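Quick start: read one record
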Amino acid sequence: MKRVLIVCALAATLLTSCENEKQRKEVENAQAIAEATREELESAIAERDQLLDLINEVSSGMDDIKGVEEIVAVNASGESVDNRGKITSDINAIRASLEERRQKLADLEQKLKNSKINNSKLLQTIETLRGQIDSQQREIETLTASLSEARKRIGVLDQAVDSLGTQVAEVTEQRDAAQEEAVAQANLANACYYAIGSKSELKAHDIIEGGGFLRKTKIMQGDFDQSFFIKADRRTLATIPLHSKKAKIISVTPPASSYAIKDVNGQKVLEITNPNLFWGVSNYLVIQID
């Protein structure tokens, strides 16, 4: 009887031990399932966040493209070298960003397909984003083609401007030469010469010759000394100080209404009141002072 009780006790103990082991394994399995579910949940949240970031990046990419489009539209008819470089740099940067986002989408899509969680909606979103990236890629290619075409037009315009600039330079050079020639001709036409000296000085320079009793004085009949004359411009010559108390014009006398010889502080001064009339008789004026 005692042996039977011992066997029953052992059996009960073994049964209890088996039950405990079963419960322990069930708890461990539950914990493992919970842990796996938590990891999958965290993974799903992370993948969702990555997808949201990509959505924002794709939206931002469209804004970048629109910004470059506006720059191209503004500068297409006359972009500077700096703007050309910046636009090209911006387009290349956007193209690289699109490729990077495309790769991120592919990686995320693979993760979602390998996940045990139902990600059909997220996969649909990825497909939508891929379509948007493809659209942006086409926008960039169109923009690049437009920029290339604009640069070709600019090149043609640059050549036209260079050609026109050459023509303008030639015309300007011809105009300047004509103006200089006109000024030179005007200066030549308005050049006048006057000589002031005593009778002996004028004779010494062969400006006058002869004179004396019953002999007429001849003015500039031979090779007179041109250097003794002072060159002036009849348009601006208004007065000639004679530095003498006595003075008289001995060359061809201009009309009396065109000039006057006045006393200024005891010295004679010739005032020309009508230059055209005064110099109309001759471009050379000889004044004798004694």
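The longest helix spans residues 2-75.
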